[in-house]
Structure of HTH cro/C1-type domain-containing protein:
Amino acid sequence: VASVAEQLKSTREALGLSVKDVVEQTNLKTDQVEALESGSWGSFAAPVYVRGFVRSYAQLLKLPGDELTRALDVELGVAEKSKEVEGELKPNRSAVNILMLWFSRVNWKVALPVFIFL
């Protein structure tokens, strides 16, 4: 199975499109297209950008974007990382946190005069 980068490049070439054509039709930059086609994922700020750019590029080439992004997640190792992080991000639901959340939502301009008046 070809990598995502290889699929993008080979499909573009098969369609007779140049990198310049892709740049004009997707609003990506030349260096971004070249990075996508070479699999230089580290040249992007975050995996979310890579996924979005791959999806846009795949749409232009009429490739299945969902399949490519799943394959990209495997290449990037995103699926495993997101499962690890998911377990770490469970909110702490202690009584103090719930009380602080409630106090943060109170409109104090109205509530404070009412409390003082009582």
In short: The chain has a mean pLDDT of 85. The domain at 4-88 is CATH 1.10.260.40 (434 Repressor (Amino-terminal Domain)). The first helix runs from residue 4 to 14.
